[in-house]
Design goal:
This protein is mostly helical and 263 residues long. It contains 11 helices and 2 strands; from the N terminus they run H-H-H-E-H-H-H-H-H-E-H-H-H. A two-stranded antiparallel sheet has the order 1-2.
């Protein structure tokens, strides 16, 4: 493959150009479907120059083990969020109350919304760019390079400098975990599921009063701000532990051991 790094750079240039156009001139295009379309078309064109197809990105289930990765990845992601929230409550003196506001339609809509957002993010960042860098330059080049655009994607102009740094650090750590999930399985199913489990659980298990919504759990009893270090601290050890466990997990675990348990 010739000039793989330039191809990855061109992928992000096209993506950022599309983002600039949609946010500046055509707000109607500023949605997930537009960014998914841009990512799909750009990936397809670049893969064609290499004699490959979109299916080579392994972004959908192709074997039984992939469905198992989706299931257990979703549960693991939700457990990671729950563990982070529990530790946060213990450190900050927060507590939860049940609101009894359970709306099945709302839950389904939240799941679909989270699933679409997560799929677009994982396909965009751990699809063509990550896999191209991984195959040509190795694990850590792929991980470090993708962290930057993945972190920037989560930033907003109204954030303080300190909050921007914390956001890049926290999302960067998440990016490492999702990247490791792909490296260990050679499929986007596990990173998609981990990401979805975390995001969906976060919708209904808030870690701060600012995250309270119309779910059946609300946070009470803390005046901490969302960027307070005590509020953010539990995230890091939980995700680092998950990364270590995933890194040292046997490659056959999700395909053989889990399949035997289900059978």
């Amino acid at each position: 493959m010739k000039h793989p790094f330039l191809k990855v750079a061109s992928f992000f240039i096209v993506l950022w150009a599309a983002t600039f156009v949609s946010t500046t001139f055509y707000p109607v295009l500023n949605n997930l479907f537009f960014y998914l379309l841009i990512s799909l078309v750009t990936s397809w064109l670049l893969l064609r120059t290499e004699g490959k197809t979109l299916s080579s990105l392994n972004f959908y289930p192709q074997k039984r083990e992939h469905y198992l990765q989706l299931l257990f990845g979703f549960l693991a992601g939700a457990i990671l969020l729950l563990g982070t929230a529990v530790v946060t409550n213990r450190l900050t003196g927060q507590h939860w109350i049940l609101t009894k506001n359970i709306d099945p339609i709302q839950i389904l809509m939240a799941f679909v919304s989270c699933a679409l957002s997560v799929f677009v993010q994982e396909f965009t960042y751990r699809g063509y760019p990550f896999q191209t860098l991984l195959n040509n330059y190795g694990k850590w080049v792929a991980q470090v390079v993708v962290i930057i655009p993945f972190g920037v994607m989560h930033l907003h102009w109204n954030m303080s400098i300190g909050m921007m740094i914390l956001t890049v650090l926290s999302t960067g750590l998440g990016s490492l975990l999702f990247g490791e999930a792909y490296i260990r399985t050679k499929s986007l199913c596990l990173p998609i599921a981990l990401h979805l489990g975390w995001n969906f659980a976060q919708t209904y298990i808030p870690r701060h009063i600012s995250q309270n919504g119309s779910g059946f759990i609300e946070v009470r009893g803390s005046s901490l701000q969302p960027d307070d270090s005590l509020f953010l601290l539990p995230y890091f050890p939980v995700v680092i532990l998950a990364y270590i466990l995933l890194h040292f997990m046997k490659e056959s675990w999700l395909s053989n051991s889990v399949e035997n348990k289900v059978s």
